[in-house]
Amino acid sequence: MATINFYLDKPDKKGFAPIHLRINCNGNQVKVSTxxxxxxxxxxxxxxxxxGLSVESHEINHYLDFLRERADELLHxxxxxxxxxxxxxxxxxxxxxxxxxxxNVNIVKEQVALYGKPFTFVDLFAGAGGFSEGFLQAExxxxxxDFVVANDINENCELTHVVRYNHQLGLDAEFLxxxxxxxxxxxxxxxxxxGRQIDVxxxxxxxxxxxxxxKRKKFDKKDDLFSHYLEVIKVLQPKYFVxxxxxxxxxKEKGKIxxxxxxxxxxxxxxxxxPLLISFIKKxxxxxxxxxxxxxxxxxxxxxxxxxxxxxxxxxxxTFVENRFRKLTPKIADYKTSKTDENIxxxxxxxxxxxxxxxxxxxxxxxIKEKDFCNIDSDNFANAFTDFLTEISSExxxxxIEDAFKIxxxxxxxxxxxxxxxxxxxxYTTSFDESIEILKSHCDTKQNKELETILESxxxxxxxxxxxxxxxxxxxxxxxxxxxxxxxxxxxKYISEIPATVSEEEKVTIFEALYDLDFIGNNQEAHRYEExxxxxxxxxxxxxxxxxxxxxRIDGKPISKGGKSFAEWSKKGRLIERFKPLTKPFYVRNSExxxxxxxxxxxxxxxxxxxxxxxxxxxxxVILKNGSYKKAQPELEKLNLSTNKRNxxxxxxxxxxxxxxxxxxxxVHYNSPRSLTxxxxxxxxxxxxxxxxxxxxxxxxxxxxxxxxxxxxVGNAVPPLLARAVASxxxxxxx
Length: 735
Hints:
Pfam families: Arm-DNA-bind_5 (PF17293), DNA_methylase (PF00145)
Helix content: 40-55%
Catalytic activity: a 2'-deoxycytidine in DNA + S-adenosyl-L-methionine = a 5-methyl-2'-deoxycytidine in DNA + S-adenosyl-L-homocysteine + H(+)
Enzyme class: transferase
Structural class: alpha/beta
Keywords: Methyltransferase, Restriction system, S-adenosyl-L-methionine, Transferase
Number of strands: 20
Largest sheet: 9 strands, mixed
Mean pLDDT: 89
GO molecular function: DNA (cytosine-5-)-methyltransferase activity
Radius of gyration: 31 Å
């Protein structure tokens, strides 16, 4: 067992003594200069720590702890059992050089256009930053992307962003840690954008609870994220926007959700063209039912308003319809009935509820948050919450008003007026497209033809159908299918699909992605790369394995001359020259550690295996030998190694992985009975090795609801090479 300690050399003329690292092992001694100096009075020789509470003392102690950890890891936790002195010195000096070089770099806070034409982008629901990373890798004919703002609700997403883009790359990209559903979100986002024109918005709002209007909802925190995403689009009006989601969204509720999403996107209007539509509506309104057409005009005018003015506009709409009812009341009910009748009161009080939509929406948000915090679901409380939240929705209030009108004995002369009031209230809750459908039903053939011409000019975005993209078609060693809704502003070239960069035969294999990381065992962590001898590791199959390695372009396309292997690209990095890192990659435990300068500068990050017990290792060995969990079941039962775990995915070296999720224990390494490291999962997602996932490595239990550890960051991310392909296609056509 080696002992590791620090000692001071003779002070220089200024009184500062160099700190040296000393290792004693079996009578041999290795000395390495740390490159750090300190006044002897400020160093505790017994504790081998700098004394005092100054920032300088704190940084020195963190640096010495870092070196002690790396020396201990090398000597006591490495696969290699013996080292010569020069090897130990070489490895430690490599760590020292890497740390000193990186820690002395100042952060650059401005993006300077070095060449070409920059286009700006914003990344919503950013997570780790898969979209961001891919967009910064893209370049076409001297066009590239500038990163303006990312948004997510989790602290570790923010930490990973700040370390990667602000500290490591030196960009001035902002991060907004806020729920997109909060009332002041848009104002805060616009504050971060600071007046810049945004060319592209990307992001994947979770649509798990997206439901059709009129259906009872689960009312969880994800219910309305899609519509809030579209609100951002309406305000920023980017040239393109990309919305990513799971493939299941296409078939949800028999495809009606997909149709509704497209309808909502088509409902985004060019506010400059609205006066033309309003003139048309007023013109035909004069010829027939002016009240109903005035209601449609008021609904269309809401599209012009900024988010902060919309509540006033909605209240004005309800007041307009309510005034119509007040004038009608004496005609359909006598004085006594109008004051005491339950149905009249239902209608009257319904208007009060609708006029205070803002207050009810706030209450609804707060209740949903509390419901989610208390885990109210699949219990005897859930229905009561759902019933109340359904009760206060605008759609339900209008439905009750409609039922009240039906029960009232309204003279036939005024039945049409009552129906118009109900139609107007329904217009209030419709999308722009749905209100236009109501308008069309009141137009003749000639008027509808004129209306279609106006609508062509008023629709801001073009989209016909979503596009299903498999990540493996873009150089990612993973079969991950995602749906992309690409909205193209009417003044831009239409993009309906993203061309594949590799054919089926050219796809990147798991072995290409992971072979050079296969040098650690169970419960080990590596902070530097080691040489891999394929011949020694694979014996009889070495030639077959070696043939899997191909030289490729960044996008995965194999090429005969030049190029790099997938693993080499991962190590070198795929960012364009303008975004090359200013510092070496580093890891911090949390935001406080970042503020205190507690950075771990390593050559390799996030490469730690789980501490699995012997039973689990034996189980994984049986599964690996059989090639799949299903085939291994009989043998597992025979050996008493069965488990309740639903599935294990055995990686096949010559294939692509299945969709990478957030739990590493779901996967079995192709060559060892173990789960994957964060770095290996990141490789399968196509993240560069220089992209470090920050904070906790994993979490469990109820913490999964609030924490986003490294494995979750990786599993939820958009593969950067897929994002790169999307960004490159946009750069080809963007004006």
